[in-house]
Amino acid sequence: MEKVLIIRYGEISLKGLNRPYFENTLLKNIRRSVRQIGDIRVYKSHGRLYIDLEDYDEEDIIEIVTKIFGVVSVSIAYIFEANMEKICEVALKQALECVEEGIKTFKVETKRANKNFPVKSPEISRTVGGYILEHIDGLKVDVHNPDIRINVEVRDKAYVYSRKIPGFGGMPYGSGGKAMVLLSGGIDSPVAGWLVAKRGVEIEAIHYHSYPFTSDRAKEKVIDLARILSKYCTKIRLHSVNLLNIQKAINEKCHAEEMTILSRRFMMAIAERVAVERKCKALVTGESIGQVASQTLESINVTNAAVNMPVFRPLIAMDKMDIVKISEKIDTYETSILPFEDCCTVFLPDRPVTKPRLERILKSEELLDVEGLISDAINNMEVITVKPED
Ligand code: ATP
Ligand code: MG
Fold first, then answer.
1. Ligand 1 center to 299 CA (angstroms)
2. Where in the chain is the domain with CATH 3.30.2130.30?
3. Which Pfam family name is an example for this entry (predicted)?
4. CATH topology (fold) of 178-386
């Protein structure tokens, strides 16, 4: 009996004429990801994708596949020549496995795509359900709200499966252009980058540090975060920019309370330059309204005015608790909370302006050699490509 992994992709199937493009991107992404395990067959058939599980470790494959954007859910299915006897037997086997996991109620659902099969769907469900009830004590049918659905599909062959393991959904990675994420060492920006990547947008990252005022560990922390993100994105190109000279210049020439807002504008301006160079079509930040002084609407306006490119802020209306939940789910949380500081804490004013005015800030920038500072920072930028297995 063959064993396969059924891979469902919801939203992509709505894409009309673009559908083959999205499907093929997903297929390619899955093939590339499972290659680390072996020479595994992945193929497309009746609006779904399949992986031949053969003797491979199915948990390993599930772990990889459920991280791939575009995958809505997966199930392990048995495939065999369709006949009622065998269908009952395999369904019973699946039911027994579910009982071991504590399942109390079930329902059999049948799809009969092959109209030549002599037994009709409702009757298949009834017969299989009856067979399971006969053989397992204590298991009950619940047609409205079952703990588990045992699915029977009769096509060229019979397919039987039960457990559905959820994926993240979204769109296939790389199907939606490219964006540059301003990646700090905090909780928010990795989540912001992940959310945009989930929509199929390829991401690159840019990080600012104030070495040697900030430590090597702080830099490594960001590399670690990029590595975790790369598990969803195959690889991440990380640009690392030293902001220290810029902060020193601000410290020397401008009001202390404008340090944060001025550095944020430099970050954005530098990110935009690098983004254009790298053919990115948007910037992504982890800003969320009101979280800190630099995230009031006034501050966001002033920061935003430093660039022309669209800035995506996927967390803008989210509460910290919900952001934390996502960071736990995607595995960045533990790294994000490590206590190494990025550049924002150097020269930090006691009282940052919370309602900056753009004219004022532009006046302050006139005291600085903005152009020279930006090009120096970019000329000294370091670039590394981070991959999951590094
Ligand atoms: P995070 O948790 O992402 O660090 P935050 O709550 O600390 O966010 P801010 O310090 O105001 O908020 O930063 C807002 C956004 O600016 C960050 O989400 C990130 O996108 C960007 N940013 C801040 N500091 C850096 C940095 N050192 N390098 C790159 N981007 C940064
Ligand atoms: Mg931060």
1. 13
2. 2-166
3. ThiI
4. Rossmann fold (3.40.50)
CATH architecture of 2-166: 2-Layer Sandwich (3.30)
**Rounded (10°) angle between helices 320-329 and 188-198:** 70
The residue behind tokens 């670690």 is: 224
Structure tokens at 225: 């975060």
Residues of the chain with pLDDT under 70: 11-15, 17, 293, 343-346
* Bridge-based pairing state of the strands 382-386 and 236-242: antiparallel
Q: What is the pLDDT of residues 169-221, one digit of tens each?
A: 999 999 889 999 999 999 999 999 999 999 999 999 999 999 988 888 889 99
Where in the chain are all domains bearing CATH 3.40.50.620? 178-386
Q: How far apart are CA 183 and CA 283, in angstroms?
A: 11
182 CA closest ligand 1 atom index: 30
For 362-381, the pLDDT digits (tens) are 999 999 999 999 999 999 99
Structure token pair of residue 267: 């970050």
For ligand 1, is residue 27 a contact (CB within 6 Å)? no
